[in-house]
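Would you be willing to look carefully at the protein I have copied below?

:::
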Amino acid sequence: MTAQPAAEAGYIQQFVERASSLYSLPAVAMEVLELTGRPSIDAAQVKSCIERDPALTIKILRAVNSPLFGLSRQVSDLHQALALLGMKPLKLLVLGFSLPREMLDGVEADSLSRYWSIALTKAVAAREIAEYLGYRNGDEAFIAGLLADVGMLVLMQDLGAPYAQFVRKAEEEEASLLEMEVGTLGFDHIILSSRLLSHWKLPPAIVDAIAAIKPAALTATLHLASLSESARTLVLADRLTDILAGKRLAALPAWVEAIAEYVPADQTDFENLAVRIEEKVEQLASAMRVRIDEKQAYGDVMMQAYDRLSEVAADAAFDVARRDPEELQLQSAWEEAKELTTAMRNFGERPLASPPVTAKPAKPMTAVATAELAKTDPRELGLDKASIARLDFEVQRCRQLREPISVLQLTIDRYEDLLLQAGPDEAIHTWRLLEKAVAAIVGGAGKSFVSADAVLMVVLPTLDRMQAVETARRLVAGIRTWSQARAAKGGMSPLTISVGAAAIALPPKNFPSSELADAATRCMEAARRSSGDSVKSIEIL
């Protein structure tokens, strides 16, 4: 670890010494630490000690009975809590709920609610992430998260309104608060927290986990391999708190990349995680009788972060396409494709765990082929051999993984009108833009390629029917928005698409993948016949 300059270390020490003289753990917490530090722990003594503080006892029982701990029955007293939870979780709750009253007195109400939003979100996120990663340190991670930011309270007391404004400015600019603190103060509030908690003689595992949170750019890679499970959990919870409670959306890619090293997941998992955290934060705030910020729903914040990520990813994908020699003749198409940023806002399913697969460029359609499509019953359309081979591979892979797989087939509504009004060249040009649009919107969630003339297939490994339908709906909305924006700038009339979705929960051995594609094609035709701009789906049993 890099040594700090003497001047900075001196400033930190001054704050720690001042805080140590002003704030001390309540007597009950100190006694619980002493009792539980003995070689032989007397549970009755610990229980009697806690019960001397009725307010603390009520807080603990409320927290224990909340869904946060998931107990099968209500707990009415500390004896039951000890029997069901054990000594360590109860001890940790005492420490977490025993902040010195002087530390909170006089802090401006908005600043205090901001602090509690951060602290409770970090605590709940740490517990949820520990469970998500299969770690057994959830209670320890929870308390570490709850206490990680006590240094903010010290700075609020010592620096007052200027520090509160400083915190607000960091949020408004979506900047790392820790980095800004280091740049201005020479140290950050996390190191202040760890030093103060160490002075209070809290368990070293909690202090070390908090100290593992380092100031860094929000987009910086999180290096977790060398950390303990508790520290790793807390670092991930700290970054997730930046995203959810601080709306620092730029932090999402590095967080997703870091957690993907330990467990496979996708956007739906993360949105559900965000929703669970929000619910439990509200329950914990109620149990502790503290006020938290009026905030945007965490699930919505996670979707916004993915939307922004999609915009960035689309720009990067198009930049690569622009440099491809085969794409140079489509320079004007490239300029129009930039308008897809708008479409990205309608799409939230953008997992990062696996990079998008770059498919071999599809053979461009001919004017004759597209004209014939307008007159052909699409149920007679056949998949080309390359499409069948790609789909076969993905079906077999999902069968081995014992995962579902879905297929989307999509086409432009009233394509014959487009051909007649704009001519074959413009129709082909529009189709190529549509291909780029779909690939950019779907991103890493699936693989898209032309499966037949004027029909685009999207293969969605590991997605079930509901997820596939949601993806299809977002594609329909995204393409509609993009097309309307293009038309408003003097382009052709807005276009819409029809999408068919077919899914199978677990492909059996020797399952013919063409059956999945054919089912999706039939659904696509049903959507097109019902006026288009819609999705139809089926599940193969």
About this structure: The chain has 26 helices and five strands. Confidence is low (pLDDT under 50) at residues 313-381. Residues 37 and 426 are 78 Å apart (CA to CA).
